[in-house]
Amino acid sequence: MPEFSRWFTFSLVGLAPGNRLSSAVEFFVFDGPKVLLLLTLVVFAVGVVRSYFTPARARRILAGKRESAGNVLASLLGIVTPFCSCSAVPLFIGFVTSGVPLGVTFSFLVSAPMINEVALVLLYGLFGWKVAAIYAGTGLAIAMVSGWTIGRLGMERHVEAWIYAAPAGVGGGGEAPDLSWRQRIDYGRDAVRDIVGKVWPWVLAGIAVGAVIHGYVPENFMAGIMGTGAWWSVPLAVVLGIPMYSNAAGILPVVQALLGKGAALGTVLAFMMSVIGLSLPEMIILRKVLKVRLIATFAGVVGAGILIVGYLFNALL
């Protein structure tokens, strides 16, 4: 792959080595096929795994669980359960009407988009197992503590009243049917067509942004803005991440480029977590079922957890 990116940049396109444009093009050509191929393989494998899980199954497992154990279980289930921002409302309705405590529901809602399998495998492929493990551990901690905190605050009255009037079990999909191994393979192929078919423009856009940062931002420039020496870098990263809308596959090439230019790991992790776990579109969608005060509490609790993670890893690493 490095040989191909160099051949494409310097021989086929004819760019001169050592300038900014050639550096950006080489980064894009190297990372584009690698990330898309890795994404395809991961989505296929995840699709097969997810043929065994549905939101309804997760809902049934969590119903009636006590909050402390439920927060842990909900956070773990969020990793392997299909979830996107557009499914936040039916999932929330289904969980609450099935008797899942509010705090446990929020642990799931934080964990599912933030620590999905695609994010973890791509992190492992791009940065190694240590970074992937750090991200998984801190993400799970944020999901567990955030849900537990919201549960302790007793904010059930800030859920829209019509949710409690909905029939039990509404929303979130049905139980997974018994499938043959061939059908589960087809399920994985369908996941590739559906997910990769939708996200590949975002992935390439993320790689393009990463390529610009890689080629045009001076070496160690980001150390002054997102480095450990700037105390305000972590909250700034969180604030910048919230309005952005991207998935893990799209944001990871940007993360890779920021780290390569001197940004601190804690700051970059905080940025990535805010993009995936505190996205403004998800907040807007959740407004259909939550009152403003509960949404603000949710954002504040999760945001505080992300800030702690950022500062902690900037101090330790």
Q: In words, what does this structure look like?
A:
The protein is mostly helical. The protein has one domain. The protein has helices at residues 2-12, 20-50, 55-62, 67-80, 88-97, 102-114, 117-127, 129-153, 161-165, 181-216, 222-226, 233-241, 248-260, 265-277, 280-286, 292-316. Helix 1 (2-12) runs antiparallel to helix 2. 41% of the residues are buried.
Number of helices: 16
Low-confidence stretches: none
Number of strands: 0
**Total of domains:** 1
| Major sheet size, sense and barrel closure | none
Give the overall form.
Answer: globular
Backbone CA Rg: 21 Å
Helix/sheet category: mainly alpha
Search tags:
single chain, 317 residues, mainly alpha
Give the gist of this structure.
This protein is an all-alpha fold and about 325 residues long.
Write the layout of secondary structure elements.
Elements: H1 2-12, H2 20-50, H3 55-62, H4 67-80, H5 88-97, H6 102-114, H7 117-127, H8 129-153, H9 161-165, H10 181-216, H11 222-226, H12 233-241, H13 248-260, H14 265-277, H15 280-286, H16 292-316
